[in-house]
Amino acid sequence: MRSLGRTDRLGSLSEARAVLNAARQQAMKVAPNMPQHQACLDVMEEGILYGGQAGVLKEARVFKELVVAPTSKALVHVFFAQRSTTKVPGVTDVQLKPRPIRKVAVIGGGLMGSGIATSLLVSNISVVLKEVNPQFLQRGEKMIAGNLEGLIKKGSLTKDRMHKAMSLFKGALDYSDFKDVDMVIEAVIEKIPLKQSIFSDIEKICPKHCILATNTSTIDLNVVGEKTNSQDRIIGAHFFSPAHIMPLLEIVRTEKTSPQAILDLITVGKIIKKVPVVVGNCTGFAVNRTFFPYTQASHLLVSLGIDVFRIDRVISSFGMPMGPFQLQDVAGYGVALAVKDIYADAFGERNLGSNLVGLMVKDGRQGKVNAKGYYIYEKGAKPKPDPSVKHVIEEYRKQANTMPGGKPVTLMDQDILEMIFFPVVNEACRVMDENVVIRASDLDIASVLGMGFPKYRGGLVFWADTVGAPYIHSKLSKWAEMYGPFFKPSSYLEQRAKSGVPLSAPGTSQQGSARSRM
């Protein structure tokens, strides 16, 4: 207690104020939506101005307020939700033991394949990387070495561990080294015939216990494994890019995937320091399916006359790492074009056709890949909005022809936020209704770790419950009348809005058989 009264180490009041003001500005920059940083600084200031005793009393008062505040509840929810994802009924509660996975083959050494291989190597798992020709294999090996160098620069890997990791690596141009692998992860481009022929080949060569995994982000696993007789070993291992950094691993099961294969992949996920979330097999699985309206809604807003960069600013201010247009630049337009038809077939009238990406490509833009998208990308500099993209946007608006009376709509920032996120919540309701996830909190974790949804908002479904199903339903109903079926509320959302039951509460169907549990 005597130390509370000491002031001999404190500088002048003006010095203290200058330090606190600088810290406040830094906190506002780094964490503008989180109250605890400013609260800590308030407490320090109290102690400096009125003495240690006053500071301690204020600390107790502020703690009592913060601990029951929405941010605290959201963060506590995320903490426990993350620890629940590996509790999988019928898999982790039936006395099964995980089998050791010592050697993994990765097919395809592109961005995803090299990232997956990196994750395995730094966790002391031997990797065989297969490519179609020596040039591609060399490129894959270089990318892995580059990933490891990047981890050294960040301080998360030592040089010794890097050498150990590379000693576990082997490149291959055929399947001869696949005879003793415990798992194969296919990470080639999203082409169904190619994936089918790979699975047909590896089934013949790999040992009978080997798990046959695909990193597909959209294609139905039953289609991928159609030409094999090993449906019980086929599983989705959907990593997020960059795979050696992003913490989420979506484990996709079909109705035929064995509990043993699921348990083994959960275990590998933990070994390589990922957070595994087990989901059901459908187009886009849990994350990409839930968030398919995210980009589409942003395109709709642009067609209605809203500025691209304003949309990104609103979404970033909410707490996303970047807005939907910068995200599209970073992910590359190839992904958007590859899944366009898949989504159109799967989601029917609630899919919003947009040719904006096609027009961007036609204009010689490929996003961050060629440093020219909605933003300009210069080495070592922050992305800058590209004013020359205006003519592409104008052409898109002309073709879309959705502006009422040909004039841009007027929207508040709150409207923009809701028009982008409420359709995402609506799709999340369908995902829960169809039992694609085991529990709502799995979707919260998937949204936080896979899409960068702000952790301090508790994840997508948790946040939606704080907004309230009745309000989300009423807004979507209004927009559905104005802009069509893209906004039409799902039956799950409608029922929850009428009954007042939270969106996250388990439904009767969720307590029965679930697609994610089969």
Automatic annotation (TrEMBL):
Organism: Zea mays (Maize)
Cross-referenced PANTHER family: 3-HYDROXYACYL-COA DEHYROGENASE, PEROXISOMAL BIFUNCTIONAL ENZYME
UniProt keyword terms in alphabetical order: Isomerase, Lyase, Multifunctional enzyme, Oxidoreductase
GO molecular function annotation: enoyl-CoA hydratase activity; isomerase activity; NAD+ binding; oxidoreductase activity, acting on the CH-OH group of donors, NAD or NADP as acceptor
Protein name, per record: 3-hydroxyacyl-CoA dehydrogenase
Segments forming domain 3-hydroxyacyl-CoA dehydrogenase NAD binding: 103-281
Gene3D superfamilies, sorted: 1.10.1040.50, 2-enoyl-CoA Hydratase, Chain A, domain 1, NAD(P)-binding Rossmann-like Domain
Pathways per UniProt: Lipid metabolism; fatty acid beta-oxidation
Lineage, highest ranks first: Eukaryota, Viridiplantae, Streptophyta, Embryophyta, Tracheophyta
GO biological process: fatty acid metabolic process
